[in-house]
């Protein structure tokens, strides 16, 4: 299927016209009346117009969220919230094929990636539904003189600001919406300006499922205006942010307005280590797709690919052969493996790093160019491999966020571990070996929040993941994630 054929597929009615903000249960225009274009990165065409919210709109949304938090919503029982989440689950599952197409149109990820997210979303929502009783009461014994009873319980923190990245909105929004509904918080979501449509459609479905007015609000707009206003707003109690380390630092600084709680998932330059005894039939495609998945636009991508020197030549040959099996194109084509990067700006950024790598002395082994022909209107980049990279080069130090692999040789386990940890980031990492003891030593030694052995990128939302060092802090998924939306309080009662 070519691009023109893909465009002739039945497209969701939602992908057209102008989209508004969701504030207090009402769909309203931005206070300024401004809008911006939603661009299909596979074609470069405008597919909708998005309301450009700013600080005034954020303030309206936060006030609506606060009013909802202190209103009837605070009287909903864990049972009520669980039933709501189950209704949300069923409605999202019913409409997920539509949501997958919207995501593909808006941010370019192929249907082969967005459609399987149906299971992930289902599992995630059901998991949060199981945590609606997380604010349980405990009665710890005390050692006070006299007669005192003590009990503790957990309460929702209040209004949550969620700043969602463009590289996977259908995943990113549930890290915020799920625990918000489970714990009784309220939220203001700020989608990325490059990919807002799927979140807006989910917001419509949340309203249809019966989420009370003001519990979930959505303000679309740009990071320096709407995002910054949300991060600094004095009536927001918690911020959940996924994005670059640079922006993460700004979020931290902005949070000091009221010392709000923060959860950050920031950048990565993750090591993926392939030992000579690895099963290369698994390691080559696994390591490759650990970078190429979502066209390299994944925070945990294993872009520093460490290959033991004795197998490097064979590995590169196999990697080149694998690259040739990948079909790149419009994500509406069900046979496509890799879609475009999100925008012209991102495409230019990735290609600039290709120039940097070549100037630094790395060998461009495969790819490295924009695709032309029938794909020339979109932002398509060939899967790219640099060989002869050392760990001091910029392409090995800085997050590129595109389908670019840096192959770095190593001699032995000690060197591999030292190189893997020689980075300011600590989000994820991988190890490929058939030696169980070596695998465990490496997994214990690599300083990262999530490690994979003989696989890469597997993620269970009920278990979750997180990072360390400059990759952020806080946990996504599981009980720990839900706990982040609660605070603990204790009561001392004189019963003498």
Protein architecture, described:
The chain is of the alpha/beta class and 496 residues long. The protein has 2 domains: 279 residues, Aldehyde Dehydrogenase, Chain A, domain 1 (3-Layer(aba) Sandwich); 193 residues, Aldehyde Dehydrogenase, Chain A, domain 2. It is built from 18 helices and 24 strands. The strands form 7 sheets. The protein has a 7-stranded mixed beta sheet with strand order 14-15-16-13-12-18-19, sandwiched between helices. Strand 10, helix 11 and strand 11 form a beta-alpha-beta unit. Helix 3 packs antiparallel against helix 6, helix 4 packs antiparallel against helix 9 and helix 6 runs parallel beside helix 8.
Concise synopsis of the structure shown:
The chain has 496 residues and is of the alpha/beta class. 38% of the residues lie in helices and 22% in strands. The protein has 2 domains: 8-266 and 471-490, 3-Layer(aba) Sandwich (Aldehyde Dehydrogenase, Chain A, domain 1); 271-463, 3-Layer(aba) Sandwich (Aldehyde Dehydrogenase, Chain A, domain 2), CATH 3.40.309.
Topology:
Blueprint: H1 3-7, E1 18-19, E2 21-23, E3 26-28, E4 35-40, E5 45-51, H2 55-69, H3 78-94, H4 96-107, H5 111-114, H6 117-129, E6 148-156, E7 159-164, H7 169-172, H8 174-183, E8 186-191, H9 197-209, E9 216-218, H10 223-232, E10 238-242, H11 245-255, E11 261-265, E12 271-274, H12 280-292, E13 304-308, H13 312-325, H14 344-359, E14 363-366, E15 384-387, H15 394-397, E16 404-410, H16 413-421, E17 425-426, E18 428-432, H17 436-445, E19 450-453, E20 465-466, E21 468-469, E22 472-473, E23 475-476, H18 478-483, E24 486-494
Parallel strand pairs: 1-5, 7-8, 7-10, 8-9, 10-11, 12-13, 12-18, 13-16, 15-16, 18-19
Antiparallel strand pairs: 2-3, 4-5, 6-24, 11-22, 14-15, 17-21, 20-23
Helix pairs in contact: 2-10, 3-6, 3-8, 3-9, 4-9, 6-8, 12-13
